[in-house]
Design brief:
42% of the residues lie in helices and 13% in strands. The chain has 419 residues and is of the alpha/beta class. The chain has two domains: 41-224 and 404-418, Rossmann fold (3-Layer(aba) Sandwich), CATH 3.40.50; 227-400, 3-Layer(aba) Sandwich (Rossmann fold). The strands form two sheets. An eight-stranded mixed β-sheet has the order 3-4-2-1-5-6-7-8, with helices on both faces. A six-stranded parallel β-sheet has the order 11-10-9-12-13-14, sandwiched between helices. Helix 2 crosses helix 15 (403-418) and helix 11 (339-345) packs across helix 14 (388-399). The chain is globular, with a radius of gyration of 23 Å. The termini are far apart.
């Protein structure tokens, strides 16, 4: 039954778009392509955005969602999350529903991308034609005029120049070429995007140094934090949301906590070893597990799975020490986790692997550890005697880095380009 519904969703998506896609193709063949017309654009300080993202909107909230939800206060924002074959079973209802508006004002769209682009130029050509036609149809329907085309991932770089965009933006947060799931062509596509972008942002200084020579205009912008959400829970001291209370009810004693995506970058072997050494400590791992490496089964290690962003601050109040237990590899050499400032706003001591950007910007507010022995000792120090001066400095770091201020920096850069 599920397979039949999935096939029906796929057919509806094709039927919804193919007629207009064929008409747009005919227009282009006759030299009447509407994307080349000089449509009137909104003023620079209220530009519209078409965002191409690799992060699903309701997944772990990070820079993508925080930025787009705030840009939507100033103009139309269409957030496009292409659904590939491996994720289709999770999102076929989203694909079938078409574009919809979130409470923050962002329009979400989950288009289906045919598999096989790596093997067939024909399939890649079809995806290019199908996505461009669908996006043009949505732009017309939503009143989006000559948008800023904003990329978070370079895989669909073939859309550049297809949507009548008046600015091209690329915001880089990871070195994507090191992920197992990345396309073999990801370096080539990223190089093309870097060279063509009117503005490149990087979320880490390491990525800024790596790409500054290739980009025409590039700026490093640190992540922000929803300070009131994470710090405000300290005053109200809310209990964990009812849907998570049964999972957390059995936790007694000190809690070492992590929240975020649990993928190949998180050192689950380290967590397992620390849990073995200290059975009286509880390790609360909040977030979806998306790695083939299966976590060990220990009574003092709890995996909550996906939780909503709204529930996260209340659950994190259970943490006594916040952890960033990342492996040391090419995957983590260029990250600057969003959770760092969220941990600071909770006013909890933080122990982390020595990630270069974290050491560079927060080295005097975090305890760093490499080996299991160092991790055990650092957590023990944090539990026994947290440093008030370090916690106060970390709190001020978070207080001064709101997402509103960060997105204001983004907007100011784009407005300068559009003038």
């Amino acid at each position: 039954m599920i397979l039949v519904l999935e096939l029906l969703a796929f057919a509806v998506c094709l039927l919804r778009t193919l007629p207009e896609a064929a008409w747009l193709a005919a227009q282009r063949a006759l030299g009447l392509d509407s994307s080349s017309r000089d449509w009137a654009a909104p003023p620079p300080d209220s530009f519209d955005v078409v965002c191409i993202s690799h992060v699903e909107w309701n997944y772990v909230w990070q820079r993508n969602q925080h930025t787009m939800s705030r840009l939507a206060r100033h103009g139309n924002v269409l957030y496009c999350f292409p659904v590939k074959q491996r994720a289709y079973r999770l999102h076929w209802l989203d694909v079938l529903r078409g574009a919809r508006r979130t409470p923050s004002g962002v329009h979400l769209w989950y288009p289906l991308v045919l598999p096989g682009s790596r093997l067939s130029g024909w399939i890649e050509g079809f995806n290019k034609w199908f996505l461009a036609a669908s996006l043009k149809r949505l732009q017309t329907r939503l009143g989006i005029r000559r948008p800023a085309l904003w990329y978070y991932f370079p895989d669909l770089v073939f859309l550049v120049g297809q949507l009548g965009e008046r600015a091209l933006v690329y915001d880089i947060q990871d070195d994507y070429s090191h992920f197992e799931w990345s396309s073999p062509k990801i370096r080539e596509r990223e190089r093309s995007l870097l060279e063509r972008a009117d503005q490149v942002f990087t979320g880490t200084h390491a990525l800024y140094e790596k790409h500054r020579a290739a980009a025409r205009r590039i700026r490093f912008v640190l992540n922000g934090v929803d300070f009131d959400a994470f710090h405000g829970v300290r005053a109200s001291l809310p209990s964990a949301p009812a849907r998570h209370s049964s999972l957390l009810a059995g936790i007694a004693g000190p809690v070492m906590g992590y929240f975020g995506l649990i993928d190949e970058r998180v050192d689950l072997d380290l967590i397992d070893e620390l849990a073995r050494r200290r059975p009286q400590w509880h390790f609360l791992m909040v977030g979806p597990v998306v790695t083939a490496r299966r976590p060990g089964v220990r009574p003092n290690v709890i995996f909550t799975g996906q939780v909503s962003y709204a529930d996260l601050p209340a659950i994190a109040q259970r943490f006594d020490v916040c952890l960033m237990p990342f492996v040391q590899s090419n995957l983590t050499a260029a990250i600057n986790p969003t959770k760092t400032l969220e941990y600071f706003a909770l006013e909890r001591p933080v122990v982390s692997s020595p990630i270069p950007d974290v050491v560079r910007f927060y080295g005097d507010t975090i305890d760093f550890a490499r080996t299991p022995d160092e991790w055990e000792q650092a957590i023990e120090r944090a539990l026994r005697q947290p440093d008030p001066a370090r916690l106060a400095k970390a709190l001020e770091n978070a207080r001064g880095r709101s997402w509103d201020a960060t997105v204001r920096d983004f907007r100011n850069e784009i407005v300068q380009i559009l003038r």
